[in-house]
From TrEMBL, chain A:
One of its GO terms (cellular component) is protein farnesyltransferase complex. The lineage of its organism: Eukaryota, Fungi, Fungi incertae sedis, Mucoromycota, Mortierellomycotina. One of its GO terms (molecular function) is protein farnesyltransferase activity. Keywords: Magnesium, Prenyltransferase, Repeat, Transferase. This is Protein farnesyltransferase/geranylgeranyltransferase type-1 subunit alpha. It comes from Mortierella hygrophila. Gene3D superfamilies: Protein prenylyltransferase.
Automatic annotation (TrEMBL), chain B:
This is Geranylgeranyl transferase type-2 subunit beta. Residues 18-317 form the Prenyltransferase alpha-alpha toroid domain. Gene3D superfamilies: 1.50.10.20. The keyword Transmembrane helix does not apply. It catalyses: geranylgeranyl diphosphate + L-cysteinyl-[protein] = S-geranylgeranyl-L-cysteinyl-[protein] + diphosphate. Its cofactor is Zn(2+). It comes from Mortierella hygrophila. Belongs to the protein prenyltransferase subunit beta family. GO terms for molecular function: metal ion binding; Rab geranylgeranyltransferase activity. SUPFAM superfamilies: Terpenoid cyclases/Protein prenyltransferases. One of its GO terms (cellular component) is Rab-protein geranylgeranyltransferase complex. Catalyzes the transfer of a geranylgeranyl moiety from geranylgeranyl diphosphate to both cysteines of proteins with the C-terminal sequence -XXCC, -XCXC and -CCXX. Keywords: Metal-binding, Prenyltransferase, Repeat, Transferase, Zinc. Binds 1 zinc ion per subunit.
Length: 357, 331
């Protein structure tokens, strides 16, 4: 019986009898006329009627779900739903369960991920109203978002509550990342969660998480980016100890996949951020030249070119200019010829270096 | 008459030909598919779709292939009292559709049809405390929306509006710059070629390109070219025709578009054409769509492909239109 009832379209149910759907207004001379499917057009007609009346009711909330499942990128309906959830004082944990299902269906919808952020933002605010520091507006971005609370100032039981919430969000995102480890929306939201709840113990876990992902796929650039985000934003910023550890971490991955762009960019990025010179990895790079697979990696030669160029400038050394030139030629002619114009330009730059006579 | 590309590239003789007439027909036919549910499931993108289609037609040298009057009439109906444009009639206003509407109206020289001051009110209302812009009144923030706002205000010559704090916008975009030289959607977000385009575009329009390490970013962008000539958006991702635009226009703004292999990219784009229906797909062998069609054609134009109208790398509109409205060339 119940199943049969579910087969009935919502608009044929008695509770909808008083609503007059508003048809699509295509104007007198439609560029885009009206011959689309009946179910879609009827549903949207009822949605327009609800929206226009700004009705705040259970049936309006039900309808937003129907419309969203039909057309999840229709952002108006999400906003209406958020208002309804607030007005009707709905349980937000239930909403999270539904979003989880929606994310599985539509993992690349901007709207769904943003909705998750809005709802979790509201949950965070409602936890301990007196300690929250943010206003009612949605914190916009990962790093810029003011943390919802100072984690260290919370009581032990409050800390547990926050940790549980963060843990369940990070697990939810990790599930989505299992299907697509480079899902941009999932990563953006993950950064927001990490930062929004302040400097809690989850930052330590996050470093381990990136390592776990990189174990599975060393070429996952999103995971490398996340690792950089963690070491430079968590624990109060990048320390000398971090630099040493991360340099070793990147080097060990480069040794396994020398032609992988990500760890190279990470390695030089960490050195720069930690105020170290790229020349510190000279021995490491030169060592790779004798490794059969590595000596054809464009990144080995590109990094050596950078190193010799720095040396040439610092020491006004003609020998270093020569070595740099050899690398540029190697890149332009042998290992990265698709970018030969770039490498040839690099070569011409070397001629400008003022060397000792 | 529209200015064709002045400097044309020598195209590899063995590359497929550009199916210009078929692309025109493909775009003209898009609006006749109203019996497909797919058409309606993308109705929130209708105004964006019109921008993609009309821009592609202008670059192809067929500016009159769509009914201009009908389009203008339709766009007017998409503007709301608060000044913003929805993606379709009865859809809430959004910065994405607002920029598209303004771009189309300027291309057709029909800005007179709408209330420009209200558009400016709308955009100014979307600026956040930190200098970024939200996409609409409910707050999602992304560097894409910053570019839409700045681009639109620049086209309308309203960047001097007193309600705006552009220094904060510059500061925010600079905070989105990553260790690889690229930019993401928010501070800390992974570098992505499309986000690079919107950030470099914003800084170009605001005269703040000196915040970019052009050599480092130019190399990162060049690294996006794969052996088959196509470009990807992030390391280890698949090539896609739309990155021909995001990567190439960024390189062009940085004066480094010559760093990639142009003949190989031209061939890749041409191979993604659908020889039966017209239109260009994301990569060879896939179904075409108007989004990849415009960015493929705009990419070819930037590459100097003969016979195409020159495109502006910042605004993704015909260069002669940008010149007509007197925007100083900053690139």
């Amino acid at each position: 019986m119940a199943e049969q009832k579910d087969d009935v379209p919502f608009y044929q149910k008695p509770e909808w009898a008083d609503v007059v759907p508003i048809p699509q207004d295509d104007g007198p001379n439609p560029l885009v006329p009206i011959a689309y499917t009946q179910e879609y057009s009827t549903t949207m007609g009822y949605f327009r009627a609800m929206c226009r009346a700004q009705e705040k009711s259970e049936r309006a909330l039900d309808l937003t779900k129907i419309v969203i499942e039909l057309i999840p990128s229709h952002f108006t309906v999400w906003y209406y739903r958020q208002q309804l959830l607030k007005e009707l004082n709905k349980d937000l944990k239930t909403e999270l369960e539904w979003i989880e299902w929606m994310v599985e269906e539509h993992p690349k919808s901007y709207q769904i991920w943003h909705h998750r952020q809005v709802i979790v933002g509201r949950i965070a605010q409602s936890l301990f109203p007196s300690t929250t520091t943010t206003s009612s507006s949605t914190p916009s971005t990962a790093q810029s978002a003011e943390a919802a609370f100072v984690f260290d100032d919370l009581s032990e039981s409050q800390k547990t509550t926050v940790q549980d919430l963060v843990k369940s969000e990070l697990e939810f995102i990790a599930e989505a990342l299992k299907d697509d480890t480079k899902n941009y929306h999932a990563w953006s939201y993950r950064q927001w969660v990490l930062a929004h709840f302040g400097q809690g113990p989850w930052w330590t876990g996050e470093l381990a998480y990136t390592e776990e992902l990189l174990e599975k796929d060393m070429r996952n650039n999103s995971a490398w980016n996340q690792r950089y985000f963690v070491v430079t934003n968590g624990f109060g910023g990048l320390t000398e100890e971090d630099v040493q550890r991360e340099v070793q971490f990147a080097k060990s991955r480069i040794e396994k996949t020398p032609s992988n762009e990500s760890p190279w960019v990470y390695l030089t990025g960490i050195l720069r951020k930690g105020n170290h010179s790229v020349t510190e990895i000279k021995e490491f790079c030169e060592g790779l030249l004798s490794v059969p697979r590595a000596n054809f990696s464009p990144f080995v030669h590109a990094t050596l070119l950078d190193i010799y160029e720095v040396e040439a400038k610092e020491q006004r050394s003609a020998a270093s200019v020569e070595k740099a030139k050899e690398e540029a030629i190697m890149l332009a002619e042998k290992v990265d010829s698709i970018r030969s114009k770039y490498w040839n330009w690099r070569k011409t730059q070397l001629l400008k270096i003022d060397v000792a006579a | 008459m529209s200015a064709l590309n002045e400097e044309t590239t020598v195209v590899d003789a063995s590359a497929p030909e550009l199916l210009l007439d078929q692309h025109v027909k493909y775009i003209q036919a898009l609006d006749t598919k109203k019996n497909d549910l797919e058409y309606w499931l993308t109705e929130h993108l209708r105004v964006n779709g019109l921008y993609w289609g009309s821009t592609a037609l202008h670059i192809l040298g067929h500016p009159d292939a769509l009914d201009q009057e009908q389009i203008v009439e339709y766009l007017v109906k998409c503007q709301h009292d608060n000044g913003g444009f929805g993606g379709h009639i009865d859809h809430d206003p959004h910065i994405l559709s607002t920029l598209s509407a303004v771009q189309i109206l300027i291309t057709y020289d029909r800005l007179d049809a709408i209330q420009v001051d209200k558009v400016v009110d709308y955009i100014a209302s979307l600026q956040n405390e930190d200098g970024s812009f939200s996409g609409d009144s409910w707050g999602e923030t992304d560097t894409r929306f910053i570019f839409c706002a700045i681009n639109c205000l620049s086209l309308l010559k309203k960047l001097d509006d007193k309600r705006l704090d552009l220094q904060k916008t510059i500061d925010y975009v600079v905070r989105c710059r990553n260790f690889d030289g690229g930019f993401g959607s928010s501070p800390g977000g992974e570098s992505h070629a499309a986000q690079v385009y919107v950030c470099v575009g914003t800084l170009t329009i605001l005269g703040a390109l000196h915040h970019v390490d052009a050599d480092q970013l130019g190399w990162w962008l060049s690294e996006r070219q794969l052996k088959n000539g196509g470009l990807n958006g992030r390391p280890e991702k698949l090539e896609d025709v739309c990155y021909s635009w995001w990567v190439l226009s960024s390189l062009s703004m940085l004066n480094r578009s010559h760093w990639i292999d142009a003949p190989k990219l031209i061939r890749f784009i041409l191979e993604a054409q659908d020889t039966e229906t017209g239109g260009i797909a994301d990569r060879p062998g896939n179904m075409p769509d108007v989004f990849h069609t415009v960015f493929g054609i705009a990419g070819l134009s930037l590459l100097g492909y003969p016979g195409l109208v020159a495109v502006d790398p910042v605004y993704c509109m015909p260069r002669h239109v940008i010149q007509r409205i007197g925007l100083v060339e900053k690139h």
